[in-house]
Amino acid sequence: MADTQDAQHPYDRLTPDLVLDAVEAAGARPTGSVLALNSYENRVYQIGDEEAGFLVAKFYRPGRWSDGQIYEEHAFSQELAGLEIPVVAPIAGADGDTLSRHGGFRVALFPRRGGRAPELGDPDTLYRLGQFIGRLHAVGAARDFRLRPTLAPADFGHASIEYLLANECVPREYVGEYRFLAEDLLADVDARFAASDFRTIRLHGDMHAGNVLWTDSGAHLVDLDDSRMGPAVQDIWLLLNGERADMQRQLGEILDGYEEFFDFDRRELVLIEPLRTLRLLHYAAWLARRWCDPAFPMAFPWFGSVRYWEEQILTLREQRERMREAPLKAG
């Protein structure tokens, strides 16, 4: 793995004083209270505010998104919130801008929302989540992103293994098998995507339970940072877990709620395992690409170890078997 940890990372400059100054420059009135929240791709803080009580400040990772792509994320969030779909949207400043700049960082402020993880084993919760996602997709299908990317095997799969191999992230003794398994899987993924006539819509993009805050009145959604164009099933499959029979039951509950608001093309179910494959490959490459950020070696100390790559190869073998199974079905 390329050793780039000696160079100072931009986030090293993000001191509490700079955070508070940036939040004040964005129009808030911070009390001085700063609490770092669990976020790695960006830096996110809970900020005490004299008027709102608490706000959440998001410092976007330098170089990841263009200003235009961030504004598309914000506009989508605000469009959803304006239609009373419970998404935590950014707060506009006095000038109407949702993105401020301070100290070389781009910053957005959000209201703080509480909640708990959804009970994904509860049929009623899954049904209500389906309703929520169906409403989101009905809006997402109304127009396309112009600047944000489309989920595709080229970026999430091929570019991922190319980065891992080019930067010698995989131990030499495992390079051959890792390359063979990854390329074999991607050949199947490419074929499935090419053969699937699916519609791409604006998605949340990373719809796992950690991005859904559940309250007695239902869900609200946070973190549209990975929002992009893609097939609707991308916002569904991450909520499925357990054995095959369990996932089919969960899928049925979700789609029962979903289709009250938006039609789901069941031909997309053939993409679930290809999407899982892409996520596995992309996650390993994401860790490698971010290794120069000091937060990553501290949070993921096991990454890059021989044992990690042994487990990755085992996971890819298992994923190859899953790819050979018939797609999930829903009633």
TrEMBL record:
Residues 38-268 form the Aminoglycoside phosphotransferase domain. Pfam families: APH. This is Stress response kinase A. GO terms for cellular component: cytoplasm. Monomer. Its cofactor is Mg(2+). It comes from the Bacteria. Its main location: cytoplasm. Mg(2+) binds at N211, D223. A protein kinase that phosphorylates Ser and Thr residues. Probably acts to suppress the effects of stress linked to accumulation of reactive oxygen species. Probably involved in the extracytoplasmic stress response. The lineage of its organism: Bacteria, Pseudomonadati, Pseudomonadota, Gammaproteobacteria, Chromatiales. Belongs to the SrkA/RdoA protein kinase family. InterPro entries: Aminoglycoside_PTrfase, Kinase-like_dom_sf, SrkA/RdoA. The active site is at D206, D223. Its EC number is 2.7.11.1. The record marks S39 as: ATP. The keyword Transferase applies. Keywords: ATP-binding, Cytoplasm, Kinase, Magnesium, Metal-binding, Nucleotide-binding, Phosphoprotein, Serine/threonine-protein kinase, Stress response, Transferase. It comes from Acidihalobacter aeolianus. It is found in: Cytoplasm.
